[in-house]
Design a protein that fits this description.
Strand content: 5-15%
Helix content: 25-40%
Strand order of the largest sheet: 14-19-13-20-21-12-22
């Protein structure tokens, strides 16, 4: 048989040659064979301008048996694997960006451990490398580079993040096969870790799909065991166990299993503390087959049950089922009402049947059935009304109120909603309130709870209600114009305009949102100290004038963000549901109330839940009984052991005693107490309700700790092992709580748990609940159901958080700077995108060292507009932009921070065990966010400025310019106004817009981008919140495990209210309330649990009282009276501590008797030393300087007092006092900021500055008090409140100095009495006397800050005269500090001589002298002989001469460097350059000496194929090779009535604007040019007289009604429209001139009626409009006349009429004709689909070669082919892309195999440039563009042929011989202009001559080598053949082809069959001279005639 021998076969034969050739010759021949064309697999490189035939071969390739083929196969396979793995650069190093011209790695490998976030863009998705949010084993964006916009629709490549590769699923050729390939190309999501496949979107989904077989269904036995557990355990287990959900899906189900499930569910629903868990459980039940099918069958079967035993069990089963129905209905009222109604009907029938059969039915069950039935009827009624919208709309469950005016008074307070309702905002009537009864007892407990609930709710609702009413009234008064309202101040609320939700944020407490508001009206606010938007504050958002609204609380505030107008809020549960129904880009008006809502909310909820029978101590709290009994846990025989608290000398002798026996008590000396303390101590231990009043300094905390220690020492009396109960310590502030618990820790080392707020105590850190729950030991000790539930829910939480954070990161990027245009492409119309990419000629890129960005240039942030902008902004708000550099000031605890510290509650409820990794996760998130920002933002405003580089024009953006520009950008991004879509549609050239309009258009694009991201995240947000609620339930159970084991639990009052449910379960029996007089009574109530048996209240009602928001409620309703004060006033026993241990007697006299009737001094306060530098320890400085009002809020400041106090503070520091010994107090927060500005940290660091209210419980040696108030009105504000005065005057121990206006303060009786005391002791006056310590006779009277200048150093103005160690005299004036001058540094000039020239030291005396003389002197530089000023010690030879260089550069211009530096290499002098294109232009001189040249800016002006002049420049048109797209505006009117916005198109493509066709039922969402689907809903046109019976899209079958409309307008006048039409908005009376304006002539007739066109709003007289619309309907066009197909237009404004029922027939007829035209323009859909399939087949045919060389670009075409809507024009573009890419890929294959490295590099550069042209966004394949591409492809093809010949010449050693000819051809191919047909002909002819002269087109070997090969094979002529691509092979035997094989180099068919050679193959005449195949003797004879051997 004749065999076909390939290269490998021949090589094997040659290697075995022995006889014909010698061994050495054979080796030579083998090496020669290696150089034959088949070696590199080259296909014929001489296929003229086409780059070879299509490569269709996909069959099996013959396996190589040796040589390089095997190696190459392995290499290719390795490259495929590497590409799939993502490790390294992939097969090719360089892939080119779709836009921008930058190189990007083909398949970038992971840069570190971890995967990044996939950032999607419209046409440019980027793979982000580095550490990401989730980590896998290496990162790679499969296929690399940018994604197409199809990624958003499911297309695109997935992200391969696996450690192993996807290639395991690939076919033989490395291409994904079958379904795998399809799945791979459509984008399977992100590939992360493990072996192969898709972990997130693949493996996880597969796990879910297969979960049915792996999830273990909950067994009967497990349910039985569960039914014995605690309800909380049951609820958490069922809701988190997938097995229970699977069980509910089982059908059919046994009766006993149904009964058990109902029993277990009933028990679960009795757990009232796990709200989120129960909601989730109700959701699982509602959606299950169990609820929808099984229960129906079970309940229905009860009626026919014959078994009496089973029937006897049914009543209990019905109770269980009734509970389930009630719970499901309450949680999901909207979606479950139907199913519950069916079940209830069956249940009622079963009850009747059971009763008839004699079963006992309880009345309670029947009552529950009736209640449920009533609720269902209510819900069904709401459903019929259309008001039942949401499952979680709690208002649907509320019964409507009647008209009884007294109903509210009798209404149960528990039915009042916590949040205000819409009716409350719009009604004038105030709610019913009762005052807090303080002079007598309450009649009953319900009244007591009702009173406090209503008062507390009104305290937070009234400011909001009245503020909103005031706001609405202001809008009405001002004509609803926003601007005046923005500047108006409201008393009770703060208003924030243009508020918009921008970014969802995952927090531990649930989903929060960053909102953006207009910060411009709030520029004056100092956010650091402002009480605005504090944590926990309630905000109300509305977009419809508060007809509806959303409630949220501030969950995070950052003053820096607030300045930008951003704050984080968390919506309430009801508001979250409403939010899902509101548009994502909706603007709101946000209103803030000043109340701390969180505290109100918890307390109000607690009051609702508090039942009358469970309120402890009702005997005293409600009934006010003064007969207080001992604690109930004490009996007569119980004894107390007080030895641990006794004084050390008495510990041993003190034994147990009966505490109820007064005579058995030890003495106060033995216990270390004074008399009043001893009384308080006894009262606290022997009475179940004890009240201890502690005036300032009397040691109430000391006594409280004694009491706590005594109780804990004897805890066996009130605690038992069977039911352990801890002691609860409650304080108003975190600081007081820390102090008290630290005191307890001194005697109780274990058993303390601190819950709640911010603690600054290191001692208590280990006892923080958060720390305790994170301990490994505790985690392991948790019950299994909690551990499994936590893990299951946390997993769900993490998945949803990842999805939300991915979207949020992109949303945040849109706020942080200017986005790159590629990410906004999908949200920019095609016309505007093309316009954006068509830069004006004078625009070039300079963008702050960032990647070039069109968006930056377009928004005026590049170099071309900087100078223009600087001019524009020269006079605009420079003061706003300037950032003052201020000296570092002291740190003052801002009031905002202090308030927030008390409000924030951190604990184990909100933070899980993974919180320890929070910092690491946060760092990773920040790193990922930075990389996302780098990718998405063309300018990042948060990024630090870097020095800008200088471009060739010498322009450089300086730092101040950048700062001003950034401020401008921030201002623009902060604006909420965006361009409307109507305005957008009217724009053709985006570059022609003003800068302001560009920003408005940019904001519109960004808004669309943000809306899409927000919409995507909605489902994940709801699931995330659900998981957070359930996780909170689990954590609450975890924390209860710790709390129940605690001995002492510490909480703030806010924390106690928040966690009241936990306290009810923990049941503390002993409660100690510190600072009880500062707490509202309602707060104290919710702190108490039903188990409390002993309550101890410690405080002082004569110091600070509780604060209410509403003054009227505080004063008239006694809301500000604490339980402590009320019980004292009601006469309950209490003890006041009488010995103060703090103040010197002079200061204590201010309190006694003016505030306290008696207060004795402890001996220790009599020993204080006098204050240095002053002649008195107490003084009040009088003044009359007026105060100033703070613009933000109601605070005040007094700069005179601030200056005086600061000067006095500085004076005291100079006396030698430490900063820590001095505190400055002020009564107003506004004064704090005023003080801080005067106190630089260098002088005052350590001095405490506080507002009085935040300093209760604190003390210091010296207190300086600024009282602030001084005004003509005589207002003293809260300085009239004795409680605040008491705190202010009682903080100082040794010295107190006050400053204030005594005249207005004297109007207050308390102050008048105090001043009388001060004057008697001469401690009050106009000036404070300063005494010099060094010169006692010198005194200074200081009445203002300037007077302290007479004591500049704290002494006097006499010189010091102290001689220093250096010999100089102290230069200071008298100073009392540093009397020995050990710290003094001499500042006089040093007199030491440094060098032999006599130069003296130039430094001051105390500094060390320099070792070398630095004085500059004249010296001559030896090298240039210039004279320079050089340091004395420096050698002139080492100095760089600074004289300008005088040398001339080679170009003849002077060097611009200095003399001592090397001359510059680039001359920047502007000269005229002659460019390669032939044009001249100005440019830098150095270009003359370089091959590089600047871009030519000369206009192209070529006449394009379309007939218009090219708009580009020579450089932009690449010197004529590829011209800019013609920008001539088309503006032809399309059939849809829009103007064509495509530039210069022969046939206008389908309109791409959003379709405006709509009806009353729906709106077409397709692009305008796509055919609309007709609406098939019934026509809505009807009136009382007639109606249409057709479908909506059909012409109506009824005439327009001509009767007048009978409706009345809002103004009270009759409507001027016709029956059945929409009423016009104008009135004939109110708008007479507008309505009767003559247009058609009939408008002013009395009986004229009008029609308002919905599209434009114009009002037109009906008869004229009817006639206008009827024109042309029934008339035929004249012969030869064309009738335009288009919509009728408004006769006034030419707006097309689309939406009008009256003219629906005409509109529908027009639309039908228009749709026919659209279909014709778009092409018949069947033809389109057929062409699409043809192109898809063509794409597949060329996939093999294109995937290797142009994979990314080729795949983009594939995605485009899969788009839903494609027009004929789209297919034309895609067809061209496939064609050009295929031809280009063939050329690249030739380059890879047939070119030298240097030639290949040049060739790749040319191909890359060609690809850029091909991918240009303006590439529409117009005639001119196709012509340009074809000419350039012709150039590339000829270049490939030339370079292939150069490779052959190199192999043959002929390179030098043909160098001249090759260079000539290169010169032609490199010409700068377009490659013409003449150029092509010249190159072809030159190549032909080259072949003839050097014979390089043949085999590529010498003639001698050819002869050796032919001789060695011993074959007669005619056996050598070649494939179509020129690869030589041999046919043995007779030479006739008998088999087919594949060419190993190009995979085409070779050989033949039946002795017949395939027609595509030829005889290789060049091998042996044969002209015919050697398959017959006749031909052999012919062959011998031509043999040339």
């Amino acid at each position: 048989m004749c065999c076909v021998w390939t290269k490998a076969d021949i090589l094997l034969r040659l290697q075995g040659t022995e006889s014909t050739c010698e061994q050495s010759s054979a080796a030579t021949i083998c090496k020669t064979m290696e150089r034959l064309p088949w070696r590199t697999g080259r296909r014929g490189p001489f296929n003229d301008t086409d780059a070879g035939q299509n490569v269709n071969g996909r069959g099996e390739r013959w396996r190589r048996r040796g040589g390089e083929h095997g190696d190459r196969d392995r290499d290719q396979e390795g490259r495929r694997r590497a590409r799939s793995r993502g490790g390294g650069q992939g097969e090719r190093e360089e892939m080119w960006n779709e836009r921008g011209g930058g190189m990007r790695g083909r398949g970038r490998g992971g840069r570190g451990a971890g995967a990044g976030i996939l950032v999607e863009a419209g046409g440019a998705g980027e793979g982000l490398r580095g550490r990401g949010i989730r980590r896998g084993g290496g990162a790679d964006i499969w296929r690399g580079g940018e994604r197409d916009a199809d990624r958003h629709r499911g297309g695109g490549w997935g992200e391969n993040r696996g450690g192993h590769a996807e290639w395991q699923r690939q076919g033989r050729n490395g291409v994904l096969g079958g379904a795998d390939r399809e799945r791979g190309r459509m984008g399977m999501g992100e590939r992360r870790g493990g072996l192969s496949g898709d972990r997130r979107a693949g493996m996880r989904d597969e796990k879910r799909e297969g979960s049915g077989s792996r999830v273990h269904i909950l067994s009967y036995k497990t349910l039985e065991e569960l039914s014995e557990e605690d309800p909380s355990v049951v609820a958490i287990t069922l809701s988190s166990n997938p097995g229970f959900q699977a069980l509910l899906c089982e059908t059919p189900m046994r009766q006993d299993l149904v009964q058990l499930i109902c029993l277990v569910l009933n028990k679960a629903f009795t757990s009232r503390t796990d709200r989120g868990t129960l909601q989730h459980l109700a959701g699982i039940i509602k959606d299950s087959k169990f609820f929808q099918n099984t229960l129906v069958v079970y309940v229905g079967g009860m009626v026919s049950e014959p078994n009496p035993k089973r029937r006897a069990l049914y009543p209990q089963q019905l109770e269980n089922i009734l509970t389930i129905l009630s719970e499901v209905l309450n949680v999901f009222p909207a979606s479950s009402v139907k199913a519950v109604s069916i079940l209830l009907t069956l249940l009622q029938a079963s009850i009747n049947s059971l009763r008839a059969s004699g079963e006992d039915i309880q009345p309670q069950m029947e009552e529950n059935v009736e209640n449920l039935k009533g609720l269902i009827e209510h819900l069904e009624g709401r459903s019929r009304e259309g008001t039942l919208r949401s499952d979680r709309d709690t208002y649907v469950l509320l019964p409507t109120r009647g008209n009884d005016p007294d109903e509210e008074e009798h209404q149960d307070f528990r039915t009042i909603p916590l949040y205000p309702t819409p009716e409350e905002f719009h009604q004038e009537q105030r709610p019913f309130l009762r005052p807090n009864i303080t002079s007598q007892r309450y009649t009953n407990t319900h009244l007591y709870l009702d009173t406090h609930f209503r008062l507390l709710r009104e305290d937070f609702v009234r400011p909001l209600r009245e503020g909103i009413q005031q706001l609405l009234q202001s809008q009405m008064d001002m004509g609803r114009t926003d601007n005046p309202v923005k500047t108006k101040r409201f008393d009770d609320i703060r208003v924030y305009f243009d508020t918009q939700l921008v970014v969802p944020k995952c927090t531990h407490t649930g989903l929060a949102y960053i909102v953006q508001f207009d910060s411009q009206p709030l520029k004056f606010v100092r956010w650091q100290n402002s009480k605005r938007l504090l944590f926990g504050s309630l905000v109300c958002l509305s977009y419809d004038n508060f007809e509806s609204f959303l409630f949220a609380t501030v969950s995070d505030r950052d003053p820096t963000d607030l300045q930008k107008g951003q704050v984080t809020i968390t919506f309430t549960e009801e508001s979250r549901i409403k939010l899902a129904r509101i548009q994502t880009d909706q603007l709101f008006l946000m209103v803030e109330t000043t109340a701390y809502f969180e505290a109100y909310r918890y307390v109000l909820e607690g009051l609702k839940e508090q039942t009358e029978e469970n309120l402890p101590f009702q005997r005293y709290i409600v009934e006010c009984s003064t007969d207080v009994e001992p604690p109930s846990y004490l009996n007569g025989s119980d004894t107390y052991d007080l030895s641990p608290i006794a004084e050390p000398l008495h510990k041993v002798n003190m034994g147990p005693f009966n505490c109820l026996d007064q005579g058995a008590w030890p003495t106060m000396e033995e216990l270390g107490l004074d008399e009043s303390q001893m009384k308080a101590f006894q009262l606290a231990l022997t009475k179940e309700l004890a009240i201890v009043q502690g005036p300032p300094g009397t040691g109430k905390t000391y006594v409280g700790l004694k009491i706590a220690r005594a109780l804990l020492t004897n805890k066996d009396l009130w605690n038992n092992d069977e039911f352990p109960a801890p002691m609860l310590v409650v304080c108003y502030t975190n600081h007081a709580l820390d102090q008290f618990l630290e005191g307890i820790h001194t005697f109780l080392k274990n058993g303390i748990v601190r819950v709640g707020g911010r603690s600054n105590s290191e001692i208590l850190k280990q006892f923080n609940l958060r720390e305790l729950t994170h301990s490994r030991l505790f985690r392991h000790s948790l019950p299994s159901h909690l551990r499994s539930a936590y893990n299951q829910i946390h997993k769900e939480l993490s998945e949803k958080a990842w999805e939300i954070q991915s979207q949020s990161m992109k949303l945040e990027c849109s706020l942080k700077g200017v986005m790159r245009e590629s990410f906004l492409q999908r949200f920019i119309s095609d016309g505007h995108w093309d316009s954006l990419n068509s830069l004006p000629i004078d625009v070039f890129f300079v963008a702050w060292n960032e990647k070039p960005s069109l968006m930056m240039e377009w928004l005026g942030l590049g170099s071309t507009v900087v100078h223009q902008r600087e001019t524009e902004n020269a006079n605009a708000n420079e003061a706003e932009e300037e950032m003052e550099l201020e000296e570092d000031l002291i740190e003052i605890a801002e009031e905002a921070d202090l308030i927030q510290e008390e409000r924030m509650i951190e604990d184990g409820w909100t933070i899980g065990p993974g919180a320890g990794r929070d910092d690491k996760k946060k760092r990773e998130m920040e790193e990922t966010a930075r990389e996302v920002e780098e990718l998405m933002l063309a300018m990042n405003l948060d990024k630090a400025d870097i020095q800008a580089e200088q471009n060739e024009e010498g322009w450089q953006m300086q730092r101040d310019q950048r700062r001003k520009m950034k401020n401008r950008i921030r201002k623009e991004l902060g604006k909420s106004t965006a361009m409307t879509e109507e305005e957008e549609d009217s724009i053709y050239d985006v570059w022609s817009l003003s800068l302001g309009d560009r920003w408005r258009l940019y904001r519109l694009w960004v808004t669309r981008y943000r809306v899409e991201l927000r919409t995507k995240a909605l489902v994940s947000e709801q699931a995330y919140q659900n998981a957070v609620d359930r996780l909170a339930d689990v954590k609450r159970r975890e924390n209860l495990q710790i709390l129940k084991r605690a001995t002492v639990i510490g909480m703030t009052t806010t924390g106690a209210a928040k966690f009241r449910e936990a306290l009810q379960e923990v049941c503390p029996r002993v409660v100690i309330v510190e600072e009880a007089a500062e707490v509202l009574e309602a707060h104290t109530i919710t702190t108490l649990s039903r188990a409390c048996q002993h309550l101890i209240l410690i405080g002082d009602h004569q110091q600070l009282r509780p604060s209410a928001t509403v003054y009227e409620l505080a004063k008239n309703f006694n809301l500000e009276m604490s339980m402590f004060e009320r019980l004292v006033k009601m006469g309950l026993p209490y003890v006041r501590l009488n010995y103060q241990h703090r103040m010197r007697p002079d200061i204590a006299c201010l309190l006694t008797p003016h505030i306290y009737s008696e207060l004795e001094n402890h001996p220790s306060v009599l020993e204080y030393e006098n204050i240095m530098g002053l002649n008195t320890n107490l003084f009040f400085v009088e003044h009359n300087h007026p105060e100033e009002e703070i613009r933000d809020g109601k605070s005040h400041q007094n700069s005179h007092e601030a200056n005086f106090v600061v000067a006095l503070c500085r004076y005291l520091l100079l006396q030698g006092y430490k900063p820590e010994q001095i505190t400055i107090l002020t009564t107003y927060t506004g004064q704090l900021h005023c003080l801080r500005k005067l106190m630089p940290a260098t002088n005052f660091s350590g001095v405490k500055v506080h507002v009085v209210d935040k300093y209760q419980g604190e003390e210091n040696d010296i207190v300086l008090l600024s009282l602030v108030r001084s005004n003509l009105q005589g207002k003293v504000g809260f300085l009239s409140i004795p409680n605040r005065v008491c705190v202010a005057l009682s903080r100082a121990k040794k010295g107190l100095y006050c400053i204030g206006n005594s005249v207005i303060l004297s109007r207050v009786a308390l102050w008048s009495n105090i001043f009388h005391t001060l004057r008697d002791k001469e401690q009050m006056g106009k000036a404070l006397t300063l005494c010099c310590q060094n010169h006692p006779d010198r005194q200074i009277q200081a009445s203002c800050a300037d007077d302290f200048k007479q004591a500049p150093e704290g002494g006097c103005i006499q010189p010091c005269q102290f001689r220093l160690d250096c010999g100089h005299v102290c230069s200071r004036v008298c100073h009392p500090y540093d009397s020995e001058h050990k710290e003094f540094k001499c500042g006089k000039r040093c007199e030491k001589i440094l060098c032999d020239q006599g130069h003296r030291c130039t430094l001051v005396c105390h500094k060390q002298c320099p070792k070398k003389c630095p004085l500059r002197v004249e010296k001559i530089i030896p090298q240039c002989q210039h004279t320079q000023m050089i340091p004395c010690h420096q050698d002139p030879e080492t100095f760089t001469c600074q004289e300008p260089c005088q040398k001339l550069l080679r170009c003849g211009h002077q060097c611009d460097s200095v003399c001592g530096q090397p001359c510059s290499t680039k001359c920047k002098v502007k000269v005229t350059l002659e460019l390669q294109c032939g044009h001249n232009q100005k440019g830098d001189c150095y270009y003359k000496t370089q091959t590089e040249e600047p871009e030519c800016r000369a206009r192209c002006e070529l006449l394009l194929k379309c007939g218009h002049v090219c708009p580009g420049t020579c450089g932009r048109c690449f010197k004529g090779r590829f011209h800019n797209r013609c920008s001539h505006r088309c503006e032809r009117l399309l059939v849809c009535s829009h103007k064509c916005i495509e530039p210069c198109t022969r046939d206008c493509p389908p309109c791409q604007r959003p379709c405006e066709n709509c009806c009353v039922h729906s709106k077409c969402m397709r692009p305008c040019g796509q055919p609309c689907a007709p609406c098939i809903e019934p026509c809505a046109w009807q009136c009382p007289h007639q109606r249409c019976s057709k479908l909506c899209h059909e012409p109506c079958d009824r005439p327009p009604c001509t009767r007048p409309c009978t409706k009345t307008l809002a103004c009270g006048h009759p409507c001027i429209g016709l029956c059945g039409d929409k009423c016009p908005s104008k009135c004939r009376m109110c708008h007479h001139d507008e309505v009767t304006e003559i247009f058609f002539g009939t408008e002013d007739e009395p009986e004229a009626y009008f029609i308002q066109l919905e599209d434009c709003g114009h009002i037109i007289e009906s008869t004229a409009m009817d006639h206008f619309m009827g024109l042309g309907d029934n008339s035929q066009a004249n012969e030869g006349e064309e009738v335009a197909i288009k919509l009728k237009e408004c006769p006034k404004c030419k707006t097309p009429i689309r939406k009008n029922l009256r003219y629906g027939s005409h509109i529908n007829r027009c639309l039908t004709e228009i749709e026919m035209v659209k279909k014709k323009i778009n092409g018949h859909q069947l033809n389109i689909e057929e062409q699409r399939k043809d192109l898809q087949n063509q794409w597949k045919e060329n996939l093999e070669i294109c995937e290797v060389y142009l994979g990314e670009e080729y795949m983009r075409v594939h995605h485009k082919l899969k788009e839903t809507y494609l027009t004929a024009n789209d297919l034309w573009v895609l067809e061209n892309q496939i064609d050009f890419l295929t031809r280009l890929a063939k050329l690249l294959k030739t380059e890879k195999k047939n070119m030298l490295f240097s030639d290949g590099y040049i060739f790749r550069q040319r191909v890359t440039q060609f690809l850029d042209w091909l991918k240009n966004p303006n590439q529409k394949f117009t005639d001119q563009q196709v012509f340009d591409l074809q000419r350039e492809l012709c150039r590339l093809s000829l270049m490939a042929e030339l370079f292939a010949r150069c490779q052959m010449a190199e192999n043959m050693g002929k390179t030098e011989q043909m160098q001249s000819e090759v260079q000539d051809i290169r010169d032609v191919l490199k010409i700068s202009g377009q490659f013409t047909e003449q150029d092509q002909l010249r190159v072809k002819e030159a190549l032909k001559r080259l072949d003839e002269k050097f014979q390089v087109k043949g085999l590529g070997i010498s003639d001698e080598e050819r002869k050796m090969i032919v001789s060695a094979m011993k074959m007669p002529p005619g056996h050598w053949h070649k494939c179509p691509n020129g690869h030589v092979y041999l046919i043995t035997e007779c030479g006739g082809a008998m088999e087919r094989r594949r060419c190993p180099d190009c995979n085409v068919a070779i050989g033949g069959e039946n002795h017949t050679l395939d027609s595509s193959n030829q005889v290789a005449t060049e091998m042996d001279g044969a002209l015919h195949s050697a398959w017959s003797e006749a031909n052999n004879l012919l062959n011998f005639d031509h043999l040339h051997l």
